[in-house]
Amino acid sequence: MQQLQWLSGCMKDKRKWFWLAMALAVVSAGLCVVFPFITQQITDRVLVGQTLPDGSVQRQTQLLVPLVCVMIGAQLLRSCVRYGMTASLEYVSQNVQQDIRRHLYDNLCTQDAGFYTRYRTGDLMTRLTGDLDMVRHTVCWISYNAVESTCLFLFSMTYLFSVNAALTLLLLAVAPVILACSFLFSRTVYPLYASLREKLSRMNSVAQENIAGNKTVRAFVREAYENEKFENCNEEYRQANLKANFHWLKFFPYIEGCAQLMGLLSVLFGGLFIIQGKMTAGDLAAFSLMSWGLSEPMRALGTYLNDFQRFLTSAAKVIEIYFARTRIENPEHGRTEGECRGSVEFRGVTVAYPHNSAPTLKDVSFSVTQGQTLAILGATGSGKTTLVDAVTRMLDVSGGTVLVDGVDVRLWDLQALRRRIGMATQRVQLYSDTVSSNIAYSAPDDISEDDVALYARLAAADFICSLPEGFDTIIGEQGTGLSGGQKQRIALARALAKQPEILILDDTTSAVDLETEKQLRKNLQELPYPCTKIIVAQRISAVRSADQILVLQDGRIAQRGTHEQLAACEGYYRDICLLQGVQGMPDAPAANAPAKEVR
Asked: Where's it found, cell-wise (predicted)?
C-alpha cells in the first residue's frame, strides 16, 4: 500500500531500530509459550505424578522449585524484552513524527498563495496534529501488536498441535467466522472514517475562523450564529463518530462470542479426551492457558483493523500535503549574486489566475531604475497587488518577463531575490513577540538595538516609546492592542530594517493620519541607503512626489507620467485629485483635445 511504503521511507536511518523492535516482539510472543509448557510439566510430573506398575504414584516434587524459577525467569525476560521493544518503538515513532512534521512545515512555508485558497487553515492544522498522531500510533502500537499477535497465534497453534492435534483443529474451526467478520468490517469501515476525518477538519476550520475573526463576530453581534454553526459541526462530528463506532459494534458480538467459544471448547472436549485417556491433566491445563494465544489475536484483529483503517485515512491526508509541490519552482541553480542596482522592469507582462476567466494584468510594460520612486494607482481589482506580487515572485506571470537588476525573476534563487526586497502591506502580520523582535524579524542576525530604534523613527513609530515596556512590550497575536496605523508603522520599520534594494509599500499608509504620512514621505526620501521604491496607494499626497506614476485600469496601464503631467490630463488620476481636493491643480484640457496615455 502507498501509505505503508511512504511510512517506511520516512523511517530512513531509524528503520534498524524498528526492525529490532519487531524482532523483540517475536521473542516476546515466543516466551508466552513458556508459561503453559511449565504449567503442563508441573501438573503432570509434580502434582499428578506417574502411576507405577505396583499402583503407587511417583511425583517428582524436586522439580517444583526449578520449574517455578524457570517460569519466573521467563516472565522477567519477557518484561525486559517488551521494555526494549517499547523503548525502541517510542524512539522511532517520535523521531519519525518529528521528521514528518518538520518536512510538512517546511513544505507549507514554500507554498504559493493558490495553495492556501485550496486548503483551509483548520484542515491543515488537523493534518499536522491529529492525522500525524495517528501515523505515530501506527508505528508505536499497531505495528508491534500486529506482529506479536500473528506470532503468538502461530506459536500457540504449533505448540497446541504438538499437545493434541484433534483438539487444536476443533478450536480452529471457529477461526473462519472471526476472519470473515474482520474482513467484512475492514471493507465497509473506510468510507466512514474518511467522512469522520472530513467532519473533524470542518469543525476545526470553523473554530479557527471564529477565533481569528472574533472581533468581527462581536462587532456584528453574531456570537449566537457562530455558536450554532460550531454546534452543528460538533454534532455532525459526534454523529460520524457514533456511526463509525456502532458499525464496529455490529461485528463485535460475533468476534467476541467466537473467541469465548474457544475457551469453552477446550474445557468441554479436553475433559472428554481426559476421560477417554487421550489427554493428561497437564495437557488440559496447557490448553486452557494457551487457547488464549489463539483467541486473543483473533479477538483483537477487529481493533487492529479499526485502527489501521484510521491510519490509511489519516496517512492519505498527510501524504497529500507531504508531496504537495508549489507552482513557484525555485530554479536548481538559481542566481544568488549579481550587481545590486535595485532596478525593476516589466516587459509585456500578463498574469492570469486559474479561477478567473480574464487576465488580471494585460501586457504591462515599464521600468524603474535605482533610487527612483514608482507609484501605482488604480481602482479596486485593477491589478495593483498582483503587479507587486510578480516582482517578489509570489506568483508567476502567464506571459512576458519581470526583471530585477536585469535578470528574469524566474532565474533568481527565490531567497536571494526576496532578500533584495522589503515589503510592507496594508494587511499587517505581526507575531506574538516584542516590538523589537517584530521589527528585527526581517534581519534577525545583524541588527542592533540602536538600529531597531533608528528604523522605528524612520517609520514614524515614535509611539513605541509610550508603550508600557517600550521596545520590549509584548505584542498580542496579530497586533492585538495596537491601532491599524500603529501596526502599519511597525510593519514599515520591519521592511526598512532589511535595508532592501527595492522597497514595496502596498497601501501601507492607508490607516495613518495625514501628518504622520507627511513625516513618512520625508523620511523615505532621506533613507541612509540607496533604495528603489514602489508605492501602491490611493492618496494623491502619498504618490505626487514619485518619479513615475502608473494608473492601472482593468489590468492595463491607462496613464503614466509625473504628478504634474497626469493632473493636467483628463482621466482617472485627475478625477482622484479633484475628489481629494488637491491644491494647485492645472486647468482642464480643452474639451476637444484628444485623450492619450501620458508618457
From this structure: Cell membrane
For residues 371 and 343, the answer to whether their CB atoms sit within 8 Å is no
- Distance from C-alpha of 503 to C-alpha of 379, rounded to nearest angstrom: 22
CA–CA dist 92, 304 (Å, integer): 20
Instruction: Please say whether the beta carbons of 336 and 413 come within 8 A.
Output: yes
State the distance between the two ends of the chain, measured CA to CA, in whole angstroms.
63
Contact 351, 395 (CB under 8 A): yes
Instruction: List, as one string, the DSSP characters of 271-288.
Output: HHHHHTTSS-HHHHHHHH
Between CA 443 and CA 419 the distance in angstroms is: 9
Q: Which residues pair with 378 in a beta bridge?
A: 552
320 Cα distance to chain centroid = 10
Three-state secondary-structure class, residue 568: coil
Per-residue pLDDT tens over the stretch 468-505: 888 888 887 777 778 888 888 888 888 888 888 999 99
At CA 289, angle to CA 284 and CA 295, rounded to 5?
Answer: 115
Grid cell at residue 507: 497601501
Task: Let me know: does 234 contact 199? Beta carbons within 8 Å.
Answer: no
Structural domain spans, the chain:
2-322, 341-420+530-599, 423-499
According to the per-residue pLDDT averaged within each range, which of 79-88, 173-182, 306-315, 501-510 is highest?
79-88
Letter string b/e over residues 489-504, b meaning 16 or more CB atoms within 10 A of that residue's CB? bbbbbbbbbbbbbbbb
Question: Whole-angstrom Cα distance, residue 386 to residue 397?
Answer: 10
d(CA 538, CA 506): 10
In whole angstroms, what is the distance from residue 303 CA to residue 532 CA? 64
Overall fold of domain 2-322: ABC transporter transmembrane region fold (1.20.1560)
Dihedral angle over CA of 279, 280, 284, 287, nearest 10: -70
Tell me, rounded to whole angstroms, the distance of Cα 396 from its chain centroid: 24
Are residues 323 and 106 in contact, defined by beta-carbon separation less than 8 angstroms? no
CA dihedral 281, 287, 288, 291 (to 10 degrees): 180
Longest Cα separation, the chain: 140
Strands 502-506 and 532-536: parallel
390 burial via Cβ count (<10 Å: 0-12, 13-18, 19+) = buried
Spelled out in words, what is the top-level CATH class assigned to the domain 341-420+530-599?
alpha beta
**Domains 341-420+530-599 and 423-499 are alike in CATH topology:** yes
Helices (H), 351-483: 384-391, 414-419, 435-439, 449-458
C-alpha cell of 224? 449566537
Phi, psi of 557 (to 5 degrees): -80, 110
What is the torsion angle, in degrees rounded to the nearest 10, for the CA atoms of residue 372, residue 378, residue 382 and residue 387?
10
- CATH fit for domain 423-499, picks 1.20.1250.20, 3.20.20.370, 3.40.50.1700, 3.40.50.300: 3.40.50.300
Looking at the whole model, is its pTM more than 0.70?
A: yes
